[in-house]
Amino acid sequence: MIGLVQILGGLALFLFGINMLSSGIEKLAGEKIQEWLDKVTNNRIKSAVFGSVATALVQSSSLIMVTMIGLINANLMTVEQAISVMLGQEIGTTMTAQIVSFHVGDFRLIFIIAGLIFLEFFPKRDWKKFGEILMGLGIIFVGMGFMSSALDSLIEIPWVANALLLLGRRSWLGILAGTVLTAITQSSSAVSSLVVAMGLSQAITLRGAIGIILGANIGTCITGLIASLKLSPTARQASIAQIIINISGVLIFLPFITPFANLIQGTSGILARQIANAHSIFNVAVSVILFPFTKQIASIAKSFAPVDPQKEKQKATSYIDENQYAVPSVAINEASRELLRLGEVTSEMITLSCQALLEKDMSKAERVLRLEDDIVDPVSRELERFLNTLMRSVLSNAQQSRSFQIKNLLVDIERVGDMAEDIAQFAQDRAITDIPFSDEAVEEFEHLWHYALSTYRLSLQAFRDKDHELAKEVCRIESEFDNTYLIARQNHIQRLETGCCQPKADVVYTETLRLLERISDHADNIGISVLQN
Fold first, then answer.
1. Model confidence pLDDT, tens digit, residues 219-255
2. Which of 6, 168, 205, 488 fits a 20 to 30 Å CA distance from 368?
């Protein structure tokens, strides 16, 4: 009984260590991972290499998966490209078993001590991620130590020893055990590492260990299938593709377990290393075999989870998704993209509304009102709700700051949309009542709205690129705009006094000028925000 408690306790420590390690690395490199993934999607081989390296470094396939789902939803990545990354992930996930198969002794305590120093004695929150990485690594090895020592005692019990020997003789029993254990723990890495711990204690045969590893792949499919039921169709396609890859790999290797075990015995004289090598070679071989069939796997996945175009149209947002909460760096990047999408829409609204005003074009004015109702308002509500939920989670200082920045700028961009809507309504009034503008008024307004729009677009570019120099330029241009606006107003007053402009044009013209000045002010707010962050 004590031995079983030690195994469960060691497994709990192992899972806790994996989560802490993944969390620390995600905070350290999560944003970069997404940037790299954006750049490799045009090449299947690059995608597979990226999936392998990134998963090995981050020790979190969920981070990569959430990032891919975000890119698929935004039409920046196809399911076929995502499958190439997944095949690389299969190789990267074997790194855990390789690491824990080495006997590190008291070095694990050094990792824990170093991690504690970073967590407790470094006041800056951003340094704590290094503490999480070191502490997580140390806890992983401590958990492995508990499991290994407990197994040393358990194998002395005759029925336990006989049961483990039976797993070696009956591969299907090993596969069943691996499937059940993975379904319970919801972590194939934990089950693979438990098998390595058995190898360290000489508690299992290599053939039995291979059976459990194959079963772990099926067990992952069960948890993946359950999780996929709650996902969007594109996310479900990615999850189903992962299931197809895992089950196909098991079916390919199932008839060849004995010759495969004989081959692996030649890779090392230490059983734990043989088990880790079996895990790695199995995943590499499966990825290589299935790599030419990414299109076929994607087609099957799409047939199981077809996208309903009608439902897709009903979704207001293009980038953010509730699944991203699990990986804050991805959630923040996707929220930034959603904000920039709103910026592009509101830029279009400025153009259409100003053209509608000058051309008395009702269709353009109506288009602006539709964009406000169909995109700007619903996306703003969804994005605000998304950010509020995200900011209640555990974030680094930088992530918290970026989230606040996005939320504050959302107010500015939504206000710009409201002002474009107001200009469109003035355009409708002018078209209906046939309010005349003088040639001088048209020329000045044409200059001012282009000026305001270019300033606004520059501010969005500064935010996108985190470009401080461009943000300074935005602030400088906005100051110049204020002077140009005041001159335009004064010119308008003079035209009224001389009779060049008719009094009924006064309200429409002066109010639209004021709205352009306020749009320029919001561009200035965005520039200042970039400089402060």
1. 777 666 665 666 667 777 888 888 888 889 888 888 8
2. 488
